[in-house]
Amino acid sequence: xxxxxxxxxxxxxxxxxxxxxxxxxxxxxxxxxxxxxxxxxxxxxxxxxxxxxxxxxxxxxxxxxxxxxxxxxxxxxxxxxxxxxxxxxxxxxxxxxxxxxxxxxxxxxxxxxxxxxxxxxxxxxxxxxxxxxxxxxxxxxxxxxxxxxxxxxxxxxxxxxxxxxxxxxxxxxxxxxxxxxxxxxxxxxxxxxxxxxxxxxxxxxxxxxxxxxxxxxxxxxxxxxxxxxxxxxxxxxxxxxxxxxxxxxxxxxxxxxxxxxxxxxxxxxxxxxxxxxxxxxxxxxxxxxxxxxxxxxxxxxxxxxxxxxxxxxxxxxxxxxxxxxxxxxxxxxxxxxxxxxxxxxxxxxxxxxxxxxxxxxxxxxxxxxxxxxxxxxxxxxxxxxxxxxxxxxxxxxxxxxxxxxxxxxxxxxxxxxxxxxxxxxxxxxxxxxxxxxxxxxxxxxxxxxx
Length: 450
What we know:
This protein is an alpha/beta fold. It is built from 15 helices and 20 strands.
């Protein structure tokens, strides 16, 4: 066991309980998958940080953890969360980014909200196909997903009117009211992680799902606004650790600790930001992009779609590709623009990224990207961000898992995000796509006879 985790307390659920009597029917396995948006592995591998995360620390001490999880391109929320429940890359599952391609702004900034955009089986869908119960709380790309219980992620606006839309989108009807009655106060808007935790606890208590997906968001917001490692981020991290403890306690209070495996994951890491590159400004100056006097795009031949620390270039006419590539190479040669890599279609395909993009960009530490077209380089609007190439260690995400299905102990090293869903599918005895990642080994090695 790592020197960081050796002195840790035993798992709070007491998962090594007495096995059922032989006359009793076998208990169906259950999985609770908690995503803490933007959680970095240092939260449980760094002794100073781990000391502030008692519930995550206890879960790690009871089972396994990853030193890092190599995610997908781009390292943003929606593609990553879809990989977490499918085990395949974005090019395969169909959720290529957070937001859809929309240079003219006709969608009012629409994201990949709807589950029918997912092209492969998901963990909850596979569970439902086997007759198991599945539920989700604020999990991305779940509007319309076939779930027994669902309060999907829907951002809408910051106005409380959006709560009405969430009520309509949630299933079964009356879900939010029933959960509010149990906790003794109505839900507000925008949602908080307090709301999401209370809703998850209600679902565990009242609906007994075999698989529950929970997405907690506050840490991501804190790191965007104040920067990774900031006092605000650390305070939020400690708060969310408490929410994780509450969800685990709800499993125990429901009497299901001996059948429930808990996995805490994240979607990406973070880097601090200073400047922002906006390639569309270069496209506009080169006559590849036209805007009106209000700054709205009226026509385009090349368009840069920002994905945070990376992004995609789309070219309408293949005849323009050499010119666009030359322009990108020229930008990259000047270090002031912060371009780390330019990917062509073959490189994007090898990374399992957007299949319709002509080029991709990754920027250096300290830089971000944006879709603006006013200036080429400007000050970053956020203090922290993600979206960069997933192999960069600062962008590695997290995995901690414990419960009756996990008899192995300690670090599993650096793993791939595509391995997580197949691992959980094995616990539930359900099948995902044939090309999903290789499951992790959860059982302890047998002692060698002497």
